[in-house]
Structure prediction request, 1096 residues.
Amino acid sequence: MPESRSRTVTGLLHAWREGDPGAIDDLLPLVYGKLRRLASRYLRGERPDHTLQTTALVHEAYIKLVGADIPWKDRVHFYSVAAQAMRRILVDHARAHKSGRRGGGTPKLPLDEALAVPVDRPQLLLHLDEALTRLARQDDRKGKLVELHFFGGLTMEELAAAQELSLSTVEREMRLARAWLRKEMEEQCDHAP
Amino acid sequence: MRPERWRRLESLYYAAIDLGPDERGAFLARACEDDPDLQREIEEVLRHDIGAGVSIAAAIDAVSRLAQDDGAAIGPGDTIGAYRIIERVGQGGMGEVYRAEQLAPVQRQVALKLIKTGMDTRAVVARFASERQALAMMDHECIARVFDAGSTGLGRPWFTMEFVPGLPITRFCDERRLDIRDRLDLFLQVCEGVQHAHQKGIIHRDIKPSNVLVSMVGERPVPKIIDFGIAKATAWSLTERTLFTETGQVIGTPEYMSPEQARMTGGDIDTRTDVYSLGVLLYELLVGALPFGIDHLRGSGFDAIRRSILEVDPPRPSARLGGLGDASLAAARDRRAEPRSLLRQLRGDLDWIVLKALEKDRARRYASPADLAADIRRHLEHQPVLAGPPGLLYRAGKFVRRHRLGAAATLLVALAVVGGLFGTTAGLIRARRAESRARTDAATAQQVSSFMVDLFAVSDPAEARGRPPSAREILDRGAKKIDALADQPEVRARLMETMGRVYQNLGDFEPARPLLEEALRLRRELHPGADSGVATCLRELSALETEVGDNERAVSLLEEALAMQRSIDGAESRSVAIIRHDLGHALYQMSRYDEAEPHYHAAIAALQHHPVEKDADLAAVTSSLAQILHSKGSFEEAESLFRAALSMRQDILGDDHPDVAEAKHNLAGVLHDRLNLVEAERLYREALALSESVQGPDHPDVADTLVSLARLLREKGDPAGAEEMLRRTLAIDRRIQGGEHEGVAYDLKELANLQHDMGRTVEAEATYRESLAMYRRTVSADSPYIVVTLNGLARLLIENGRPREAEPLLREGVGIAAASLPEDHWLPQIAASLLGACLGALDRHEEGEPLVVSGYERIAVALGPADPRTGSALERLIAFYEDWGKEGAAATWRAKRTTGKAS
Prediction:
């Protein structure tokens, strides 16, 4: 069973690379589901190290879903799908967590509690998500870089390879992106009630 | 922003960051002459620039700090990691302490320390990481255990430790009005805890009453030392930060600070520093006042305090008490004594012991907390204390008191002592030997300690991308560095064992194994023959094997450990009993009940040989034995042992403890098998409620209890109730076991039984097969669980006219059961009875008859006539003869049915 599923993921990645835009719609739920399950394990302490690294998680999802060595290009596609999925998981979690608390009483703890950044301050992650959306609207490539780096765990070198940019360009763009996001988020924090 | 304006912002930004900060303003003003708004915008972004090498997480961290400084503190209901904050219980120089609740994997209360944002420097983060590891290596009743550490993801490190709901030791003693004897007993336990830490290479550096909390464990006060490692993490700030506010006022507790700490030369701290602080603590426990009347010095600044710590000799405790005036009355009352008798108790031994601990020159202090404790014990046993002046009269007096001889003999003894006939010589030799052993121990501890320091010193947080290095990273570094200690096998063995254990506790079995194996090899080489250290290593390694499922190896390791420990401590010792318990457990895991049972019996006998009050070991072994008897089908014996185990546990642990829930569940299980359904259901429900409240709704124990309850409800004729329980279970198990697990297989099997009962045949067959397939992948091939599942599926097939498919399944089941279970067990008999019925359905009645008859008869013997399984076997038997056309035989058995029901 796992084998046929992995063929599907690899196949979908391949199809996507070959220019079938529908492939991503099939791929995302698969990756999303896997990542969610993996993420939830961290909460229950089955893993010794509680600091959840998105990198490790995405990589694990990759091994589980794809397993075999596939061309670098396809792997990058996978990571970019995973980064999107990860972002969605974290943001969903942050929303659920926020509204749960507003509703009073003790919210049942969601399974992906141990996710690293957003847990204590869901509001912050939501700010990041919004700022990132604005950044992508302004500058699609920078938005993509940040998403891949933060939610997909790609290093600068991998970002460069994935986006077919030079390392120095990636570093420069990321530096601006970070500063800009910080500025935006700080403004949001100031305005938040 | 329009695209071209954004592009302009971008290129000006890149140009600006290449310039020095001073040049940027002028550059931007010039470049944005036409668009001052853009200039402001770029400057705003530049203000948020944090360089090239910083991660997004760190950027967010920086923002969050702004938010937190606004006073958005953490409050009740917030979660950090897997912990939910209940309330803040304290605030110190380091940060805040919260009472929090761990939600998974076990539900328990913890103390959560969250490091102050302002102190959130990388250095403190790294030191904290080191504290976590150090604490994890300590395992002592009197040391608060550290459970977990992490960072909030916003860069604030936290760690959780055992929540100690106790009082500072001095307050505890005064409120309970403990006398000197009880105070000393409590203090001895504190010494043991500190000694344990020293043996692990850890120095506390900040022992004081508020770090020694006492709480009642049952009837017994137990001190717990908290905050191990914290003083070290913040060593740099001990004087500057803890002791003074900006206005120079003393707010900390310098009274417990040793001269070498007060000297502030830094780095020159060793275990004797803790001995000094223990001496101050003992002083306060005995006298009710501190050695130096420092309070009046508080206003005069740190230098005056320092000078008195460095230069003033503390008064003897008895003299200090005498000088307290009226306060001595209160002190005496709190110690249940008259002032004069209190004075008498302190004068002499205790004066000397305290002063020896408080020596300015640490070379003259006790070398370790153990030495301090040993001297206190000598005092309590009326033996000469090391601290005492070695006058002859003193020694003779001790001797007489110890032996409580008659007056005439006293003189003789006094003469003998003067002549140096007994005691002294032998005692001296013993003392010397102990001293040299202590020196080796101390040298090893010192080595281990400096190794650890090195390890953590290299943990450069920069490479950890703004988060503290994980346990794994630090351990991995250590594992590599150990090789450098090739010429010091003792240290090496000790480190490897420790690190192996830590890996194992972290669930990292792969790196644990080579470390433990190597530690074992080294220990064997160093101490050929029977040796406690080797035995400990063997047990450590066997625990690992049990974890990874190699019970075979675990058994052989434990057998060796057993033989060794037996030759050291004797067959009746507690240490041997505990190894036997492990061994029995490993055998039980392999279904080798007959071999396991004698070990349990022997362990129980040994534990009862030296009875202890509230013996948790005895409760555990009793429960294990009962479990084996239950598995073997000896219900009656099992029941009485489970009852005994339950009452022992309630006695030891109170009513709200997971182990009590487990004991209730176990007892309910055997009652269930004995068809005491009413009491069984009550106990199951009690166990369920208890597990849910103590361990949390997703805990495996909750799932186990739900399954049992479902089975009972099904037998009671409440299939809908049963199904609800089973679905809840399955959901929990799938969540916590990740889909593929014998627990899930079990749930599926139970669900299949139920679906079968409710006539949902197609569903039931599929579920049985799913369960069976999962069992085959997850348990050993001869597991009884496979037999049970095979039986269920076969019964369904027979009932649905498919006996041909059922036959091979049943033959497999009979074969497995015959190999792994006793012959008179009911399970192989059910398989046999079903096989007989199956053969009948295939028109092979002669072949089937003996099976279906003896199967029923033996089930009836094993389970009793009233058990539903006996009833089913009888129905099969009747149907068998009816089908065969032997109406006479069928009638005979039918008669059995009615009488069976009547009786």
